[in-house]
Design goal:
Layout: H1 6-20, E1 30-36, E2 45-51, H2 69-82, E3 85-91, H3 93-99, H4 101-114, E4 122-126, E5 136-140, H5 143-146, H6 148-171, H7 177-180, H8 186-195, H9 208-212
Parallel strand pairs: 1-4, 4-5
Antiparallel strand pairs: 1-2, 2-3
């Protein structure tokens, strides 16, 4: 992971230049915010907020969904080492079932922003708007593919959640959480048919809801 490729530097520069349109110098602290686990059938949703220094250099960063697990964990360490501030917030599957995944995602994002040790002047958020933070914000469609700060947040949220799901794999070995992280893969669905749900499954998500309510088979 030590070799830096030209295409990684070019991609980093592209993401950084996108962010610099919002803060052309160091006078404004900019935070990126993103979540992980929104579409899963099990486990929590995680959100991260990251404030990078103006001269940060983390080549290899990209949307967490397009880089390997090994690379994500390598980059997460670099992001944490260089960040002026970073925070990760976790919201449980019980909260998701009670308040729905959209509200849970927003709650996790808001908590991550509020937990930063530095208060940003601007928050860039992937797709959503947070009503309960008193900071200027911009909601960006595909922000994790365009913004350096949001991409870094996506990596921290994803790696933190993956560690949690790996720990659940040890508690619930029938489901293979360390492999699919709670997404609705064929392996996961087969395990649900065989073993039923466990305490970290989101019972309001289909097809779990219909199945647990005695409706259609999964």
């Amino acid at each position: 992971m030590s070799r830096i490729r030209d295409k990684d530097i070019a991609r980093f520069n592209e993401l950084q230049n996108f962010d610099r349109q919002f803060y052309p110098d160091e006078s404004l602290l900019l935070a990126g915010v993103d979540e992980a686990g929104r579409g899963c059938l099990a486990g929590p949703v995680a959100a991260a907020a990251v404030i990078l220094p103006f001269d940060a250099f983390v080549p290899g960063v990209d949307d967490s969904k397009v880089i390997s697990e090994k690379k994500r964990f390598h980059l997460a360490g670099q992001i944490k080492n260089q960040a002026l501030a970073w925070s990760v917030s976790i919201v449980s599957n019980e909260y998701i079932d009670r308040f729905n995944i959209l509200n849970a995602s927003k709650a996790a994002m808001s908590a991550a922003v509020k937990s930063l040790t530095h208060k940003p002047g601007l928050v860039l958020i992937d797709a959503l708007h947070l009503d309960d933070i008193d900071i200027e914000q911009r909601s960006l469609i595909k922000g994790d593919a365009n913004s350096l700060a949001i991409a870094c947040a996506s990596i921290l949220a994803k790696t933190e959640r993956d560690l949690i799901m790996a720990s659940y794999d040890r508690l619930f070995p029938d489901f293979g959480f360390s492999r699919h992280k709670g997404y609705g893969t064929r392996q996961h669905m087969d395990a649900l048919r065989t073993a039923g749900g466990c305490s970290i499954h989101r019972r309001t998500f289909e097809p779990l809801k219909s199945w647990m309510d005695g409706g259609d088979d999964m």
